[in-house]
Specification:
The complex is a heterodimer of chains A (281) and B (269). Chain A contains nine helices and nine strands. With 281 residues, chain A is of the alpha/beta class. The chains are: A alpha/beta (281), B mainly alpha (269).
Chain lengths: 281, 269
């Protein structure tokens, strides 16, 4: 199933995120810093898009704009046809950060239940959903533990369970595996692919790991720094959901895609890279 | 259980026993040394009464001492409660409003350097020499500062990632307070209260030195010392030590309880 067909039969319509001509300038005492410069990006419903680029390329800023944690200086963003603020208030998206950001005084279960509790889901419903989610991320036995009794990878899995607790149609992830070791990272990537196939959520995934971006994504958005711009969008097309498994990491097509993203990152024209949704500058 | 495991347990028990016993033995030796020094060195009682004499006074005067403990303890407790509430309230206000913070911070800093017990004579005139209120006010003012400072620090412990998360969830201000702000601040509040508890007791006792009704530990210490009854003065000092220990122990236990409830990593720092 391609990204396009996934989008067409998606209940929420074809477009999850639409970013048009967005700039973000941070005014500081040492002069203005342009974090994002005239960025255009469209993420289809159910599509997995990674943002990759060097530090300071504005990939996290872009994600925060979509999440309404920050406002663009110019340009417009829509999430399922609404403003980011409306989308946030309607709980349209789930989010995970580089830090798991669990509340240390709550048990793992209570952490997963947090968004449900804040949004008025009853105790019974919360319990059931949290149980299901902990099953999903393989932490069924750890519901009554406290976060700091868990390893970093387990904490991040709790954070992901929390992010998908309300079955969002859009998942925003800001380097969620950035602080984890390579083995844990690869295992969680496989789990994430599986989860996304189940929930059919669109994902915007910020990373600075090329293999990670290629393994997870339908498209990889390569950004350049100072000012933050979209340099190139690389179509991966390695198949979706359950088609992506550990074996893929040793596949020739996987290596080809890694090469294409790497070349795009290093400013090369990118042999055979298809560009969509952004201009080549 | 294996032989080595058994040995390990014995060693552990011995370790604990040693840790508890060592200071007790040391204290015992010091007391014996003290008594011997007073007896053999013929130290005059006004210089240093012997432990035996102090112990005798403690037993003989116990009804008075226990009454004084209750009076001083009550003053310190009222001061701790009053100052604690005011300190927490002011910190919450300062945490919510930048203007309040700017107004209160220098005021509290000023309060911290004022020798509060020196106000006692003035307060006795204000509230009447037969009233305990002046002592309670002194204790309350002494408590206010550490509670305010610690609570405000606690209220500022909310991590940016948690603030983002609450925004993402479109949580109401009340929900943010309940879910994130208060749990993060609570261990700090109780640390402030523990630090303040000793101050409350000290202030309540010292305030009694400056007058007021002759009811508490401090009053009896001055009376006994003025009457050249040094062993009795020391026995009242012991009463003061008891009050201090009770306050410190209680607030320490409360602090531990809160930290345990607020999760293993809910500790300040």
């Amino acid at each position: 199933m391609s990204a396009a067909t996934a989008a067409q039969d998606h209940p929420r319509g074809a477009v999850a995120v639409s970013v048009e001509d967005v700039s973000r300038v941070f005014g500081g005492s040492g002069g203005a810093v342009t974090a994002l410069d005239q960025v255009d990006l469209t993420v289809a419903a159910g599509e997995f898009v990674s943002l990759i680029g060097p530090s300071g390329c504005g990939k996290s800023t872009l994600l925060r704009l979509v999440a309404d944690l920050d406002r663009p200086t110019s340009g417009s963003i829509s999430v399922f046809g609404r403003t980011p603020e409306q989308a946030r208030l309607a709980h349209d998206y789930g989010i995970a950060f580089q830090q798991a950001g669990l509340l240390p005084w709550r048990t793992v279960r209570a952490n997963v239940e947090l968004p449900l509790a804040l949004h008025g889901v009853g105790k019974g419903g919360r319990r059931e959903r949290a149980g299901h989610l902990l099953d999903l991320v393989g932490l069924a036995d750890f519901g009554d533990h406290f976060p700091d009794q868990l390893s970093g990878g387990m904490q991040q899995r709790v954070a992901i369970a929390r992010a998908i607790a309300e079955e969002p149609s859009l998942l925003l992830m800001d380097e969620p595996f950035g602080a984890l070791d390579e083995m844990t990272r690869e295992r969680l990537q496989v789990e994430l692919v599986r989860l996304c196939a189940q929930t059919r959520a669109a994902v915007v995934f910020v990373t600075h790991s090329i293999p990670e971006a290629v393994f997870l994504s339908d498209r990889v958005v390569v950004m350049s720094a100072r000012p933050g711009r979209i340099q190139e969008v690389v179509d991966i097309g390695l198949g979706r959901g359950t088609e992506r498994e550990e074996g893929l990491r040793e596949d020739t097509s996987y290596f080809e895609s890694v090469t294409r993203v790497r070349e795009a990152l290093h400013g090369g024209s990118g042999a055979g890279a298809t560009v969509r949704g952004a201009e080549l500058r | 259980m294996s032989a080595s495991g058994g040995t390990a347990v014995v060693v552990a028990v011995r370790g604990t026993a040693l840790r508890v016993l060592a200071p007790v033995i040391l204290a015992g030796l010091l007391l014996v040394g003290w008594q011997a020094a007073v007896d053999l060195g013929e130290i005059p009682p006004f210089l240093l009464p012997s432990p035996r004499a102090i112990g005798g006074e403690l037993v003989a005067m116990w009804p008075t001492i226990s009454g004084a403990i209750v009076v001083t303890g009550t003053n310190a407790a009222v001061g701790l409660a009053l100052g604690g509430l005011l300190g927490i309230g002011a910190a919450v206000l300062a945490g919510l409003l930048r203007t309040a913070d700017r107004l209160l911070a220098p005021l509290v800093a000023g309060l911290a350097v004022v020798p509060i017990v020196a106000l006692a004579p003035v307060l006795y005139t204000m509230f009447g020499a037969a009233s305990e209120v002046a002592r309670q006010v002194v204790a309350a003012v002494a408590v206010l500062v550490p509670v305010f400072v610690n609570t405000l620090r606690g209220l500022r412990q909310v991590r940016p990632v948690h603030r983002d998360l609450m925004r993402v969830y479109a949580a109401t201000p009340g929900q943010v307070t309940r879910t994130v702000t208060v749990p993060a601040a609570l261990p700090f509040v109780f640390t402030g209260l523990r630090l303040a508890s000793s101050l409350a007791v000290i202030s309540a006792i010292v305030a009694e030195y400056f007058g007021g009704p002759r009811t508490g530990i401090g009053s009896f210490i001055t009376t006994a010392a003025a009457g050249s009854n040094y062993a009795r003065a020391w026995s009242f000092v012991l009463g003061g030590v008891i009050v201090g220990l009770v306050f410190y122990g209680t607030t320490l236990a409360a602090e531990h309880l809160v930290r345990r409830r607020s999760g293993p990593s809910g500790r300040p720092g």
